[in-house]
Design brief:
The protein is 26% helix and 28% strand. By secondary structure, it is α+β, with helices and mostly antiparallel strands. A hairpin with a 2-residue loop joins β17 and β18. Bound molecules: flavin-adenine dinucleotide.
Length: 348
C-alpha cells in the first residue's frame, strides 16, 4: 500500500491536540489528526476559565506574566481563522472573606507585581442581588472564559474541511516504528504526538498522572445581571440567562458521572456566596489530566524518538496549551531547547 506522507500524526483533538494541529498548520507542516469523538473528555466538560490570580492565597499562577500576555491575542486569532466566537474576556470579582483579607489586598493593590492584573480594589459591596460581599473585593483583569466545546466544534469543522481529521479510535497495535519515521495504516509520519488527555491507555508511556475529577452545575437565577465572573469558594460565570458554577477537586472516584457528594459540596459553597433562589439546569463532571507536579508532560520518548507527548495540562488547559503548542513545535523544528519544567523526561 502506497503511504501518504505527513509531517505529524496527532492523536486527540481536545484543547491540546487542537492547538498543536493549528500551530503546525500555521507553519505549513502537514498533519493527520485522530479523535474518537467521545463526549467524556476533559475539554468538553471544562468551565474554561483563565484567571491569572488564583488559589486561597490569591497569588499569581505559575509564570502568569509569560502565559497571560498573549493569551487573548492567541484565542482571538484562532476565532478569526475558524470564523467562530468562543473567547469571552470578563473581569473576575473576588469578594473579600475577612477584614484581614481586605487589609492584605490594600497592601498588595499598590504592588507592581499585581498592577497589570488588578482593575479595582473596593471596600464596599459591588451591589449584585443576593451576593454576599459586605467587605467589597478585588476586580481582576486579563481573565474570562473560553467556550471550549464551541472552539472544538469549529476546529473539527476546519480540520475536516482540509480532509485531515479522522473520527476513529487510534489503535496502538497498528504503529510501525522505523528509525526515522513511523507508519500507521496508510500514513507515514515523521512523528506521532499523543494528546490523549486524562486516563490515557497508551502503552508507550507510564507516567505519574494525578487525575482530578471535578463537578460543575449550570443554574438559572432571576434578577442577577452580573458583569463579572464572581469567585469566592466557587466561581459563577455569567452566560446569557444562566450561570456556570464550579468546581470540585477529587483524586478518587475518577468518573465522568457527577457525584452527589460533589454536587452537595458545590451547592454548600454557592449558598455562602449567593443567598437567592436558583434552579439547577445541568450537572456534569469530568476528569482533569493533572500530573504529579502540576506541570505538563511534553517531549519525545526516551527510546522511540518518533513518538512524542503533549499532555498533562491539568486545571489550566486554556492558558497553557497555546503557549506550549508554539514552544513544542519550536523544539521539534530545532529552534529551541525544551523547557525543563515541562520536559516529560523528569517524570520517567
Ligand atoms: C470539571 C472540569 C473543569 C475544568 N475547568 C477548567 C477551567 O476552568 N480552565 C482551564 O483552563 N481548564 C479547566 N479544566 C481542565 C481542562 O479541561 C484540561 O486542561 C484540558 O481540556 C485538557 O485538554 P486535552 O486536550 O489535554 O485533553 P482532552 O480534552 O481529554 O482531549 C483528549 C482527546 O483525545 C481523544 N483520544 C484519547 N485517546 C484516543 C485514542 N486512542 N484515539 C482517538 N482519540 C483519542 C479524546 O477523545 C479527546 O478528544 C477543567 C476540567 C474539568 C474536568
Amino acid at each position: 500500500m502506497r503511504k501518504i506522507k505527513v509531517d505529524y500524526i496527532i492523536v486527540g483533538q481536545g484543547l491540546a491536540g487542537s492547538w498543536l494541529a493549528f500551530e503546525m498548520l500555521s507553519r505549513d507542516l502537514s498533519v493527520a489528526i485522530f479523535d474518537e469523538d467521545k463526549l467524556e473528555t476533559s475539554s468538553k466538560k471544562a468551565a474554561g476559565i483563565y484567571n491569572p490570580i488564583t488559589g486561597r492565597q490569591m497569588v499569581k499562577t505559575w509564570r502568569a506574566d509569560e502565559f497571560f500576555s498573549k493569551l487573548e491575542i492567541n484565542y482571538s486569532l484562532l476565532e478569526k481563522k475558524l470564523g467562530s466566537r468562543f473567547l469571552h474576556p470578563i473581569p473576575i470579582y473576588r469578594p473579600f472573606k475577612t477584614i484581614e483579607d481586605q487589609n492584605d489586598w490594600e497592601g498588595k493593590a499598590a504592588d507592581e507585581i499585581f498592577l497589570s492584573y488588578l482593575k479595582e480594589f473596593r471596600t464596599s459591596s459591588i451591589g449584585y442581588h443576593e451576593i454576599h460581599d459586605p467587605l467589597g473585593g478585588i476586580v481582576l483583569n486579563k481573565s474570562g472564559y473560553v467556550d471550549i466545546p464551541t472552539m472544538l466544534m469549529a476546529m473539527k469543522a476546519f480540520l475536516m474541511n482540509k480532509g485531515i481529521y479522522r473520527a476513529e479510535v487510534f489503535n496502538y497495535d497498528k504503529i510501525e516504528l522505523k528509525p526515522k519515521s513511523v507508519t500507521y495504516d496508510n500514513l507515514e509520519a515523521k512523528k506521532i504526538i499523543f494528546c490523549e488527555g486524562s486516563l490515557p491507555k497508551n502503552p508507550f508511556w507510564d507516567l505519574p498522572f494525578r487525575p482530578v475529577r471535578g463537578e460543575i452545575i449550570d443554574i438559572e437565577i432571576d434578577g442577577l445581571d452580573a458583569k463579572h465572573i464572581i469567585n469566592q469558594g466557587v466561581f459563577m460565570i455569567p452566560k446569557n440567562d444562566r450561570f456556570t458554577v464550579g468546581s470540585t477537586y477529587d483524586h478518587n472516584n475518577l468518573t465522568f458521572e457527577p457525584q452527589e457528594s460533589g454536587i452537595k459540596s458545590l451547592e454548600d459553597r454557592l449558598k455562602k456566596l449567593f443567598a437567592g433562589e436558583y434552579r439547577i439546569i445541568e450537572k456534569r463532571a469530568g476528569v482533569r489530566p493533572a500530573t504529579h507536579d502540576r506541570k505538563p508532560y511534553i517531549g519525545l520518548h526516551s527510546v522511540y524518538k518518533t513518538l512524542g507527548i503533549f499532555n498533562g495540562f491539568g486545571t489550566k488547559g486554556v492558558s497553557l496549551t497555546p503557549h506550549f503548542a508554539k514552544h513544542f513545535i519550536d523544539v521539534l523544528q530545532g529552534k529551541s531547547e525544551l523547557d525543563e519544567e515541562v520536559n516529560v523526561q523528569r517524570a520517567i
